[in-house]
Amino acid sequence: MATPRAPRPATTPTPSSLTRRRALRAAGAGAVAVGAGLTSAPGASADTRRRGEGGPPGAGRIDTHHHALPPAMRQWAIDAGLLPPEGGPDWARWTLRETLEVMDTHHIAAGVASAPVPSVAFRDRAVAKEGVRVCNESLAELVADHPTRFGFFANVAMAHIDLAIEQAAYALDELGADGVIMMTSTGGRYLGDSAFDPLFAELNRRRAVVFVHPQGLPEGGTELPGVSEAIGDFPLDTTRAALNLIATGTLDRHPDLAVILSHAGGFLPYVAGRAVSAGRQGEGPAPDAVRRALRRFYYDTALPLSPYATPTLLAAADPTRILYGTDWPARPAGEVGAITADFDHDPALDPGSRRRINRDNALRLLPRLAARLKRGAAS
User: Fold this and answer.
1) How far apart are CA 257 and CA 268, in angstroms?
2) Model confidence pLDDT, tens digit, residues 26-48
3) Are 135 and 155 contacting, i.e. CB atoms less than 8 angstroms apart?
4) In Å, how far are 13, 197, 207 from 204, measured between CA atoms?
5) E strand or H helix at 97, and its extent?
6) Residue 53: its pLDDT value, please?
């Protein structure tokens, strides 16, 4: 989202919002059961046929770096002063219709939707409670309406760890989230800071998936004319977060946590040799910790990966740890097509690796989504 202005206080939930919440809890309970293999997803294929959204064939891609801004979330962002009532960035005009068109055009079976709200937006506790609720429930509603086309990563308010733990539990247990999204830093502290340990411990207990998304360098950067911060600062932000998780031991202390690094890990695979060398000199994380982490992290292709970075990432990580991602709609329709074509023709990838990255790895990592797609295909 755009750099936020000071958020306004949260509003008290209305009776209609409470009714919607009860409905989402019911939908989430169904998603949990499906993910555990306890029940089928009745009406899933009927839902897509009724809406004319049958989508691509069952072998379509799974987009794990896929953003969404449903109407309720957009209105909250406007009310909180995060977005202007009119205009704003192109991605703020997200629509379901265009999203499904882009997905179908590029054979994307499902997108795991997320909302990378800057952590500063949730610094006020009341705003954090209301904003995270709106974000997560609107994404859960998207999944409930289109169960074979979407999953979602839930927001948590990292500035308020007790609240974040509650929000994660509600999203995972009642809304059926596929994991949580975390911004790289909060209040100037990167994810490996000890303040976040209780949340990581709870997510590790749940064997959860964490999607790490950049938001720019916490101290700000020097603006380069004609060069977006998305080119250099965002990958560096992801790299810092990854190295911080390694150096603090957070990754090793939570072995059952699956961590996805946005944008192919930023610069991490490229600077891994430098990190190992620095560790041997006592100036960085232990070399073995770096090597373990490189093979442990998951990476999406939304750098974009192809054609330049693929050989480096494949030297650092196994193809089973790489996930297809587009960064839609921050990356517009035409660019989604361009980067997908580059990926499809990348000479560094053999057919088996491409198939795993397109779909198989995500289905193994995200069992709730996999179960819904399997039942939808069988109906």
Assistant:
1) 19
2) 444 444 443 333 332 322 333 33
3) yes
4) 31, 10, 5
5) helix 96-105
6) 36
* Boundaries of domain holding 188: 60-364
Q: Is residue 311 part of a domain?
A: yes
Strands 189-190 and 179-183: unpaired
CA distance 299 to 362: 11
Percent helix / strand / coil, the chain, rounded to 5: 55, 10, 35
| pLDDT, tens only, 327-376 | 999 999 999 999 999 999 999 999 999 999 999 999 999 999 999 999 88
CATH of the domain at 295: 3.20.20.140
Q: What is the mean pLDDT of residues 281-300?
A: 97
Total number of domains in the chain? 1
Q: Are residues 110 and 369 in contact, defined by beta-carbon separation less than 8 angstroms? A: yes
The amino acid sitting at 345 is H
Query: Does a cis peptide bond (omega within 30 degrees of 0) precede residue 367?
Result: no
Question: Is 246 inside any structural domain?
Answer: yes
More confident residue, 87 or 339: 339
Mean pLDDT along residues 157-175: 98
Task: Pinpoint the alpha helices (H) of 108-217.
Answer: 125-145, 161-173, 197-205
The answer to whether 212 and 191 have CB atoms below 8 angstroms apart is yes
